[in-house]
Each structure stands twice: as C-alpha cells, then as structure tokens.
Amino acid sequence: MAEIQSLARGLKIMELLAADSEPVGITDLADELGIDKSSASRLVQTLANYGYAEQDPQTRRYRLGPQVVRLSRSLLTRMPLRDEAKPFLRQLVERTGECAHLAILAQNQALYIDQVESPASLRVTTGVGTLAPLHCTALGKSLLAFGANVPLPDELPAFTPRTITNPETLRIHLEEARRQGYAIDDEEYEYGVRCIAAPVVDFRGKAIGAIGISGPAGRMGLDRMSTFAEIVRQASGALSDRMSFNRT
Amino acid sequence: MAEIQSLARGLKIMELLAADSEPVGITDLADELGIDKSSASRLVQTLANYGYAEQDPQTRRYRLGPQVVRLSRSLLTRMPLRDEAKPFLRQLVERTGECAHLAILAQNQALYIDQVESPASLRVTTGVGTLAPLHCTALGKSLLAFGANVPLPDELPAFTPRTITNPETLRIHLEEARRQGYAIDDEEYEYGVRCIAAPVVDFRGKAIGAIGISGPAGRMGLDRMSTFAEIVRQASGALSDRMSFNRT
DNA sequence: TATGGAGTTGTATAATACGCAATAGTTGCG
DNA sequence: CGCAACTATTGCGTATTATACAACTCCATA
Questions:
Q1: Strand D closer than 7 Å to the CB of A11?
Q2: Please, where are the H alpha helices in B181-246?
C-alpha cells in the first residue's frame, strides 16, 4: 500500500478547499496539513494549473476549481443505475407529489446521486453529491438492511430526538425493514421530514442502491405511509428487475 | 510556475478515468502518460485510498471514485450565483415550457452548472457538469459577447451545417448579440435544437454567467423567438440585479 | 514611510518517487 | 488441462524531485 505523498497531499488540499465555504489561504492549508507554506503553494498551484483549484485574484486565496464538476458529471453519466432509475424517480414524483432520490453506498454513507424535484413549493430537496448517515435516513437504512456486508456504523449520533441511537434497536428496526421490503425515516434526521425508501437489488438480491421519497411530515401523514410505501416498493422492484437484466 | 509532478500525474489519471467510459487498466494509464506501470499503479492506488478512484474487484481495472461527486456538490452549493439563479430558472421553465440552464465560463468553455427540466416529454436536457463550446451555443455566445477579456476561440469547429465557422462572421454575430442583449443558437450545435440565452452581469456589466432555455426547433419556432428572447432577457436582467446587490 | 502579514520563488539537501526487474495472479489458447 | 502471454503489484537501488528554510515581493495598515 505504497502511497504517493505529494498526490495524497494534493487530494487533501482539495478536501480542505471543499470543506471551507470561504476561500482558503496558503498559510491555513500549510498549517492544517503540517507542511511548509512553500510546499502548499506549489501543490495548490499545480491543482490550479489543471482547473481543480482557483485563485481569487483579489485575496489570492484559493477555492475549488470547476474541473471537479466535470469529473462528477463524467462519473454520474456513466452510471447505468442512474440512467435506469431516472424514469422511476419521475414516476415517484408524479404519483406521490414528493421529491424522489437515488443513493448508493460510498464511504459507508449514503451518497445521493440523483434527484427529481417535486412541483410543490414546500419540498425536501437533497442535492446530488450529498452524503448522509446510514442509520437515520430511509435510503441509508435500505442500503444497510439489504446491502451485502455493510457493517452497522460504530457510532449512531442523534440528529433529532427520534434518531435511533441504540444498536440493538436499530438491528430490530432493520430486521423489520427487511421483512417489509422498505425503510422509513420518521423525522429521525431532520425535524418535520419523513422519508420512505426501498433498495435497488441486483440478481443476488443485494442492494446496489436505493430509491425513495422525502416530504414534509404534514403531507406525509402516518396514515398515508403505507400507500406511499407500496408505491416506492413497486418502483424499486421494477427498477431492480431492469438492473438484473443488464447483468451479463 | 513550479509543478508538482506526481500530483499532476494523479490529476491526469483522473481525467483519463473520466474520459473512458470503460474502466481503465494500469498498463493503458501508464502508456498514455508515458510512465512506468509501477508508477501508475502506485498513483492510482493513492487515488483509490482517498476515494477518487475505484477498483473493479473483477477486472482489477480502475474507474472514477465517488469522492469527485462530493467535491462537485461542495463547489456548486457554495456558488452564490447558483442559489440566486434557481428561482429564475424555474420561472423560465414555467413561462416558456422549455428546459432552462445556467452556465459559467471554465477553461474557455461553457460549463453548465444548473438546470431545471421542462415537464414536456420531448425536452432538451444538458447535464450539470457538461462542457460546451462557446461559439455555437447560446449560453456560450452570451459569455463570449458580454464577458471581460474572453478571447475568441482559435478554432471554430462545425457541429452542424449552421455552425458559424468564420471568425469575422462570429464577430459580427456577437456584436449583434451585444446590441440585442441576448444570444441565439439556431441549430448550430445540435440538429433540431434552438436556444436563447442572456448574460448574468456583475455591477460592471461584465458576464459572470449566462442563463437560457433550450427546446426542440418544432416548439421554438422562429416566430416565437422574440417573445422567448424577451422573457430570457427579463430573467437575466433581474438575476443580474440581484447579483450586483451581493457585491460588497 | 515603516511594519507586519500575506503568498511566491531560489536553492541545497535528502527524502521520495521513479524505473527496472522480479513476482503473483488471470485469461486465453492450443 | 497445462502452458503461455498478459495483467497488476511489490522490492529495491538510484537519481530525480519534492521538500524545508530563507529571502523576496506585494499589500494593507499604522
């Protein structure tokens, strides 16, 4: 596991640039990485040469460059799951009136890779590229419950009073989700937001992703949850079938 | 302009991974960069360690990793222009029934950074992260005509018979766009697709981006173009006003 | 005008990434 | 079924290359 130091440092710089909402100065970068200013300067200049960083001409500080957007698109458009899922996401919005999302597993979190927005003016959008925890989101739970060899998170941080923080409770909860074929997030991640999601499975029945809907608790009343769940489950099933066909 | 070699090589590898739709092997990477296989292997391993590359367990080949999606989102969400533009994009879709797009200048090309889809089943979508040439798209022409110090492209490749390939013709065309306050793409980039776009300008009147609509030529008849142009111009003007206010 | 802070550049050193060669693992063909 | 050709990975000595230190420049501020 030989690691190229200067490449690793460059990647870390990109992450620092991404983490800070304000442009970052060379000195800060150098301090955070524990390297000299000169090294940081040259690394970030190299990033800038290739469009991965950008220098604010005024402040001489650096922020992320537009090249990362291109790479992201390249990855997303080459993802068969994403293409196949799109019509189902649209269908979900049409049938439920809520925003629909598609996520995959990345770094042991749920990575949102597509979204179709609801026409309602009050809606729950989650930008493409967002990472969310597995234990308190409907998409995350679907990935947990139906994924192959997905370990339970070590920590179960609480985001609202309803977040499940006990591993044993979560285990039972996931068991339930497996039985039902779908997972629910009942204001466990964000106040006033409920979600329903179901896994997209491959030919082995293991999750390669998850799709679901999110909406304000007002519209996603508990009485309507089972109806919505059925709609989501249908869509995820049909999408899973399509994905299995694609397997060579 | 000292460049860190191994970081540059790592970035180039990411671009190669992005360019190929199929996963790429170490040997190919090494050949294309003109370096040894061992170096390529170690570089791509480092990328993989940080989530910027992923190894297909079956073929041992590499593709882009999910980390780039995160970086992209981080960049896009921190872009004030994008937030401000969203309602105007929605408004454009509402008023014209066509897809609306937002682009900025990146690497002397038009980089699409947001999109709102039309509800019509026949629609012209351009994924976020797409790069398009400046000389034959409405958004690109807007950036060219109203940008500060944007050089005319050296080459004007033809994509359709209507593409403007003569620099002098383009110059006059841009002059016209400047006078009108908007730019048109009349099937110059893609058959059957017409676009109208106008610049988003800062307090100096220089373009920081452009918004516009794209639709099938059938619906975007030449008789309706001036109506649509007025709608786009209004939206871009209002958005420009908002962006000027934000300037400190 | 001086001063303190920023980022960039010059340079010698030594760490580091490099290429070569050998190994291990896989696919394909006879 | 076994050999051959190809793949990716690892060990290792060398020299390139990235590094840290320091000098320098550019700005803002006092």
A1: no
A2: 225-246
Q: pLDDT, tens digit, for every residue of A182-230?
A: 999 999 999 999 999 999 998 888 899 999 999 999 999 989 999 999 9
| DSSP letter for each residue of A27-87 | HHHHHHHT--HHHHHHHHHHHHHTTSEEE-TTT--EEE-THHHHHHHHHHHT-HHHHHHHH
Q: Read off the pTM.
A: 0.89
Asked if residue B114 lies in contact with residue B82, where contact means CB atoms within 8 angstroms, the answer is yes
At residue A247, the pLDDT reads 44
Greatest CA separation for chain B: 62
Any A CB within 8 A of B1 CB: yes
Strand D footprint nucleotides (protein C-beta < 7 Å): 6-12, 17-22
Considering CB atoms only, which of A11, A70, A78 is closest to B52? A11
**How far, in Å, CA of A148 to CA of A145, rounded?**
9
Asked if the C-beta of A80 comes within 8 angstroms of chain B's C-beta atoms, the answer is no
User: CB of A50 within 8 A of CB of B11?
Assistant: yes
CB B145 within 8 A of CB B183: yes
User: What is the sign of the dihedral through the CA atoms of B90, A74, B77 and A93?
Assistant: positive
Give the type of residue at A115. Q
CB contact under 8 A, A71 and B74: no
